[in-house]
Design goal:
Blueprint: E1 33-41, H1 50-64, E2 80-82, E3 91-101, H2 107-114, E4 124-131, E5 138-146, H3 149-164, E6 169-172, E7 181-184, E8 189-195, E9 198-204, H4 213-219, E10 231-238, H5 242-245, E11 251-253
Parallel strand pairs: 3-10
Antiparallel strand pairs: 1-3, 1-4, 2-3, 4-11, 5-9, 5-10, 6-7, 8-9
Length: 255
């Protein structure tokens, strides 16, 4: 006996729409792709806080049409983070953001979309996509500080004595309503040198701890706060090389 398939009923109701996800609903697992963005922070944008800088980047990603992943829950947030936030007032040539995407895109496509959406004082340096999903940890950071002639003379005189010390104890603030604590920053100082009016500072990291350039300026007996806004981060050395960061054949770098 042959069973005929049921014929569609022209008077039947249309199929029910798929229920929309609501905040707090458990979502199915999703594929997430990592992109690494390197950019500079120049001019007055150096006075942006960590959170403000991240918001500027997130808005640019939205305008660029990147398929950015959002966190789940009642207050979804773009899945983007700065790998090593700079201090307020510090300019940088090497800001790095880790961005999670819901769909794979080539680095060429991502770079072309994002570059015109960033502010003039936040130029794009490079895009790596797809990137490996490993912890990106700093190993070294190189800074320069532009000084005037009297300050350069003071720094040059004090550098040898500073480097000769086995310990350099400072009191470090850890935020409002938190007590300051002593810290020895000598192990983190790799090099200090003057070139003309430019102070070069090379710092290392141990367990994601390091010294702050402003602390170095204070130890060199320079006026507190007077040169903090001339601190510039030139380069960061990471635990993963650029070649190892690349997880596929799609990458582009721009100078």
């Amino acid at each position: 006996m042959t069973i005929e398939p049921p014929q569609p009923d022209s008077g039947s109701l249309p199929p029910a729409a798929e229920p929309r996800a609501r905040p707090g609903d458990v979502q199915p697992p999703r594929s997430v792709y990592r992109a690494v963005v390197e950019f500079a922070v120049q001019g007055d944008l150096r006075y942006l806080s960590h959170h403000e800088e991240l918001r500027v980047l997130q808005r640019a990603l939205t305008r660029a049409g990147w398929p950015v992943a959002y966190s789940q829950g009642f207050n979804p947030r773009p899945q983007a983070a700065l790998a090593l936030p700079r201090n307020l007032g510090t300019s940088s040539d090497c800001e790095v953001a880790l961005v999670d995407l819901l769909a794979p895109r080539s680095a060429e496509e991502l770079e072309a979309a994002l570059r015109p959406q960033l502010p003039a004082d936040m130029p794009l340096r490079s895009v790596v996509a797809p990137a490996v999903r490993r912890a990106l940890l700093p190993e070294r950071a190189d800074y320069t500080v532009q000084l005037d002639t009297p300050a350069a003379a003071v720094a040059g005189e004090n550098i040898p004595a500073l480097l000769a010390e086995r310990r350099l104890l400072i009191r470090r603030d850890y935020g409002p309503e938190k007590p300051s604590r002593p810290a020895d920053i000598r192990p983190y100082i790799e090099s200090l040198r003057m070139e003309g009016l430019t102070l070069h500072i090379e710092l290392s990291f141990e367990q994601q701890r390091s010294a702050r350039p402003s602390e170095i300026l204070n130890l060199l007996k320079l006026p507190p706060g007077e040169f903090d806004h001339w601190i510039h981060r030139r380069r960061i050395t990471w635990n993963i090389s650029a070649a190892a960061l690349w997880a596929g054949p799609q990458t582009i770098e721009r100078g």
